[in-house]
Amino acid sequence: MSAAMDTESTYSGYSHYSGHSKKAHRQGRDRHKSPRSKDGSRSEKSVTIQTPPAEPLLGNDASRAEEGQDDNWGETTTAITGTSEHSISQEDIARISKDLEDSVGLDCKRYLGLTVAAVLGLLVFLTPIAFILLPQILWRDDLEPCGTVCEGLFISVAFKLLILLIGTWALFFRQPKADLPRVFVFRALLLVLIFLFVFSYWLFYGVRILDSKDTNYQGIVQYAVSLVDALLFIHYLAIVLLELRQLQPMFTVKVVRSTDGESRYYSLGHLSIQRAALVVLENYYRDFTVYNPALLTASKSRAAKHMAGLKVYNVDGPGNNASGQSRAMIAAAARRRDSSHNELYYEEADHERRVKKRRARLVVAVEEAFTHIKRLQAEEQQKAPGEMMDPREAAQAIFPSMARALQKYLRTTRQQQYHSMESILQHLSFCITNNMTPKAFLERYLNPGPTLQYDRDRWLSKQWTLVSEEAVTSGLQDGVVFVLKCLDFSLVVNVKKIPFIKLSEEFIDPKSHKFVLRLQSETSV
């Protein structure tokens, strides 16, 4: 009897305190303490996830927090950001250290390639000038006089070298967009071709001109002109191989994000796998919505909530623990499968209701805040300087009136980790400066934007790893699949070749467009 009275008093105390949000926190702490008391090996400071069953624990916490939410949960609940949801294991630490070592090697390789290309380019531009100046320095007295044609060749060499310099700067001297795992095959072939070409010209020049001390200076200048012409043709070849060849679409790639299944289609030309991966990543930052791991906890929480209601009793002893529990869980999950869709429906409907309510409150608050800001007209510029505010001060003045509604909406839609107060103030001052409407200000927060819209610190995807069964320097082919991995998710790319289209023509005689109207006497008028 006393135990029943204690239980009843305890229940009444909790029911009296049910309206306050501290109940959710106290229950959450009790739930977290109970597993730790049973398993002494689990520590609060442990951040290592070694087995897949750790995921339902995270989902279970999320489901309990979701159950304890009310309309004012944003005021008293601490939001879990993207940083707190990620754990790291010893394998991840080893992989990160290996990536750092590989990045150092990539930097050395990149600078080595730039150094080799710069030295070779300097040799190419100095070679024609050296061909012309060396005879003047070594055996100037024995040279034949340079006539009008020879002097005209000087002008030709000068302008051709200038054109070659500008073209080389426009084609090769660009800021690199990425560090590729392998060398660019066509660029390496062009460098080898240029080296062999210049070496053969120097070899011929040393044997036929320097050794014999040729006195025909016009022929020497003409030889230098032929070298510059050949270099211009090689530059044209580089434009075709590096720029024009990939412009014609030949393949269609489907890019799927592994976590939420968001996909896009792109058309690519003749590219290697690593360069196609670079194009895919450039389009990913522009077209895909920002990756939000907080949105993926809903399915885990539902699964953990369903499994939390199951109790498994081992009556055969510790020997058959694993198989008995798995069979019992599978059977219980099958029995509850028919009712799970109703729970999912009501959960999604309740979430949509809360989002719509928060959205309406946010829209009203922002519109009311923007009504206090009026752009200064010409007649209002005569006011005292103390009565005027710059856009930053105006944004700070109206921000408190909308901050609460915006904070609640961002927490409800789980976007709070992507928008800091400083970024919101900057965007608000930008909208005020450019006389933008409240709808334009809210566009960034009502609809998740692409990754480029947010700060680099919140991308969660900066360093990528290319995984492919084929060599990354080989070209795209029909059916090729490669994966781009980062720390939190991966992009699966499937390549399909654009089919050959056979288009025929059919001629329609203009005289065939003639019709006869047949009227029947019985037709009602």
From TrEMBL:
Where in the sequence does UniProt note compositional bias of the Polar residues kind?
A: 74-86
User: Per the record, where are the segments of Basic and acidic residues compositional bias?
Assistant: 36-45
Q: Which UniProt keywords apply?
A: Cell membrane, Membrane, Transmembrane, Transmembrane helix
- Basic residues bias: start-end ranges: 19-35
Instruction: Indicate how the chain sits in the lipid bilayer.
Output: Multi-pass membrane protein
Q: Tell me if Cell membrane is a UniProt keyword of this record.
A: yes
Main localization category: membrane
According to the UniProt record, one GO cellular component term is: plasma membrane
Q: Does the keyword Membrane apply?
A: yes
Coiled-coil positions are none
Tell where it localizes.
Cell membrane
Q: Where is this region: Disordered?
A: 1-86
Q: Which residues cross the membrane?
A: 111-133, 153-172, 184-204, 224-244
Q: Which Pfam families match?
A: Strabismus (PF06638)
- Which InterPro entries does the record match to this protein? VANGL (IPR009539)
What family classification does the UniProt entry report for this protein? Belongs to the Vang family.
The name this protein carries in UniProt is: VANG1 protein
**Species this protein is from:** Tichodroma muraria
What taxonomic lineage is listed for the species of origin? Eukaryota, Metazoa, Chordata, Craniata, Vertebrata
